[in-house]
Write a structure and sequence with these properties.
- The chain is mainly alpha-helical.
- Helix content is 58%, strand content 3%.
- The strands form 2 sheets. The chain has a two-stranded antiparallel ribbon with strand order 1-2. The chain has a two-stranded antiparallel sheet with strand order 3-4.
- α6 packs antiparallel against α7, α7 crosses α11 and α8 packs across α9.
- The protein is globular and about 65 Å long.
Length: 455
């Protein structure tokens, strides 16, 4: 036990309460950490120099590589003596991670980037042109704002993925899960779509399905794939259809929604890596939970309705719809696809946590959540007798679940919103929580018999 009275909050004898704990004192960085940060700074300057100078692609790409290497080495050195149980690490005292001035500045900057990317890409033209040589080699055409975005997105997942690997290096589940989202982002979400373009095929993202990518099953997209010569279009259409209606329910039955939301999805991949420093900011209140259910299922109903209307209009037997199909499609793309999933979903990380989109808006998460809640084998079991109410689990639940409340009652956690990231289990100092699969039925429901089949 720490007997140093200076390390404890001051006790007020008159009021009978403890005061606020003191903010942590800064500690000096090692020489290696300083060098790693210097490499990051030099990489940033090199990338900016390539953009605003003579746009040398080699200099710009070298700068991005230096940022990845420098940040990765810094994370490795900074966390080499720490583990998952130390994730709190004064998070609520750091202005960047507790809605302080730096946090607000980050949120504004990230939001501004998305706004410019969507509606004023001309301002990004210098950065886009810097990437032309890479885009020509990879996609066979000059870069555009989406190539820039995909590269920045991938660099963020890769860099902060290393951070997650270092922080959770002693937890096999987290190492494998983080490696998975890094792999799917680099290969399936960045390389494969652009390689398809290089061979004059559609830019297709194999890890996105309806309803998250609703236009993949819209009539126009379906016809375009069927009419494409060479059989690639039919393969992509078959892939998307089977993934939506066959693979998704089967995998969710066996593994819950985590197989997609925490292992494959690019949105989840960014949230689990670049968004990890802000996961504790998610609202755990009952009001937020009620709002979550209303909003996310409203989005799901909207895209289901839009898909039905679009197909009815395309059939030629619903002329009375007029331009309704096009209006609904455009409205979904603007309000949900752009503003909600992009600007709010990522730009608001430093303000509302890392899973705002996944929790409140993603229609794919809504469908997977229904399946997980009703008939999946996945659950998080609890051993209430060992819970000491430290609150680490609830603090770090990015989906706003009050995990501690379930643990104190010894109830299984079977929530539609749970993405199975497993961080609650990782940060528990007593081993109270376990991610498990087991037979469906009464044993899954909160308060019933606990199963012990490990995943």
């Amino acid at each position: 036990m720490n007997t140093d009275s200076t390390a404890l909050p001051a006790y007020d004898e008159e009021s009978g309460v403890f005061g606020e704990p003191e903010a942590p004192q800064g500690h000096g960085m090692s020489v290696g950490e300083r060098i790693a940060l210097a490499v990051c700074v030099l990489g940033t300057l090199a990338f900016l120099g390539a953009i605003f100078g003579d746009r040398q692609s080699l200099l710009g790409l070298g700068g991005l590589a230096a940022i990845v290497v420098g940040a990765s080495v810094y994370f490795a050195l900074a966390w080499r003596h720490k583990g998952s149980a130390e994730l709190n690490d004064f998070a609520f005292f750091r202005t960047a991670r507790n809605r302080g001035a730096i946090g607000w500045a980050l949120g504004i900057a990230m939001t501004a980037f998305y706004v410019v990317l969507y509606w004023w890409p001309s301002y990004l033209e210098p950065a886009i042109r810097t990437l032309d040589p890479l885009s020509l080699r990879l996609a066979g055409k000059p870069a555009n704002q989406w190539f820039l975005y995909g590269l920045v997105y991938t660099v963020a997942v890769l860099t902060f993925g290393v951070r997650m690997l270092v922080r959770h290096r002693k937890n096999r589940y987290q190492v494998v899960r983080t490696s998975s989202v890094m792999f799917f982002q680099i290969v399936f979400a960045f390389l494969i779509p652009h390689i398809l373009e290089f061979f004059q095929q559609p830019e297709y993202y194999l890890t996105y399905f309806w309803p998250l990518k609703p236009d993949y099953l819209f009539p126009g997209s379906v016809r375009a794939l069927i009419d494409r010569p060479g059989g690639v279009g039919m393969f992509l259409l078959l892939w998307s259809t089977l993934a939506t209606f066959v693979a998704t329910p089967i995998l969710t039955y066996y593994y819950g929604k985590r197989w997609y939301c925490s292992w494959v999805c690019g949105c989840g991949g960014l949230a689990e890596t670049a968004g990890d420093p802000f996961r504790h900011l998610s609202d755990k209140s009952t009001k937020a939970w009620k709002l979550e259910r209303v909003v996310i299922y409203s989005v799901l109903a909207f895209i289901v309705l839009t898909t039905i209307v679009v197909w009815l209009h395309a059939s030629g037997h619903a002329g009375w719809l007029g331009g309704t199909a096009d209006k609904l499609s455009r409205a979904y793309g603007f309000f949900i696809g752009s503003i909600f999933s992009g600007i709010v979903g990522v730009g608001f990380y430093p303000l509302f946590g890392s899973r705002v989109w996944c929790r409140f808006g993603c229609p794919m998460a809504a469908i997977l959540g229904i399946q997980q809640r009703l008939w999946s084998r996945f659950r998080i079991t609890t051993n209430g007798g060992q819970c000491m109410s430290c609150g680490n689990c609830s603090t770090h639940c990015e989906m706003g679940i009050d995990v501690r409340a379930y643990a104190q009652r010894g109830e299984n956690i079977v929530r539609a919103s749970c993405v199975g990231c497993g961080i609650c289990s990782s940060v528990c100092p007593r081993g109270v929580l376990k991610l498990e699969n087991g037979p469906t039925g009464p044993d899954r429901i909160a308060g019933n018999t606990r199963v012990t089949l490990d995943v």
